[in-house]
């Protein structure tokens, strides 16, 4: 495996996935294989995208980082829905928000800002 396993973003999403497996296993059957499975799939997609972005040359990262950001937004939406449906408790939801979602969001946002400035400077260099 690559150095991605040492990235704070990779580790935080990996920990989130482990936490989610414990919560989703307690979902009622009618939600476990729909909403629960969708949550896990989106979390895995986020982790996969971190690996993909890390493997790309810097000039090619922006689109994958945008895809990661969008996928993470979808995951957040489904987590909120699971709390509103009382599939996870308010306490669990707060834990997810404080220990995972906030930090992952900040890291993805930072990566996105970096890619935009990097992309803008590359395009500016091409014009000169």
Please outline the helices and strands.
Elements: H1 8-24, H2 29-55, H3 62-84, H4 90-127
Helix pairs in contact: 1-2, 1-4, 2-3, 3-4
Give your account of this protein's structure.
It is a single chain. With 128 residues, this protein is an all-alpha fold. The chain has one domain (3-127): de novo design (two linked rop proteins). It has helices at residues 8-24, 29-55, 62-84, 90-127. Helix 1 (8-24) packs antiparallel against helix 2, helix 1 runs antiparallel to helix 4 and helix 3 (62-84) packs antiparallel against helix 4. It is elongated, with a radius of gyration of 16 Å.
Summarize the structure.
This protein has 128 residues and is mainly α.
Beta fraction: under 5%
Portion in helices:
over 70%
Specify the structural class: mainly alpha
CATH topology: de novo design (two linked rop proteins)
CATH architecture: Up-down Bundle
Roughly how many Å is the radius of gyration? Answer: 16 Å
Give the mean pLDDT.
91
CATH superfamily: 23S rRNA-intervening sequence
The count of domains is 1
CATH class: Mainly Alpha
């Amino acid at each position: 495996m690559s150095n991605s396993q040492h990235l704070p973003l990779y580790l935080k999403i990996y920990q989130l996935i482990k936490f989610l497996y414990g919560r989703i296993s307690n979902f009622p059957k009618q939600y476990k294989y729909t909403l629960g499975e969708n949550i896990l799939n989106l979390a895995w997609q986020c982790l996969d995208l971190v690996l993909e972005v890390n493997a790309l040359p810097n000039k090619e990262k922006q689109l994958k980082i945008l895809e990661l950001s969008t996928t993470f937004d979808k995951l957040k939406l489904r987590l909120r829905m699971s709390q509103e449906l009382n599939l996870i408790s308010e306490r669990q939801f707060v834990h997810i928000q404080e220990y995972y979602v906030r930090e992952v969001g900040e890291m993805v946002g930072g990566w996105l800002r970096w890619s935009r400035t990097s992309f803008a400077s590359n395009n500016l260099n091409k014009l000169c």
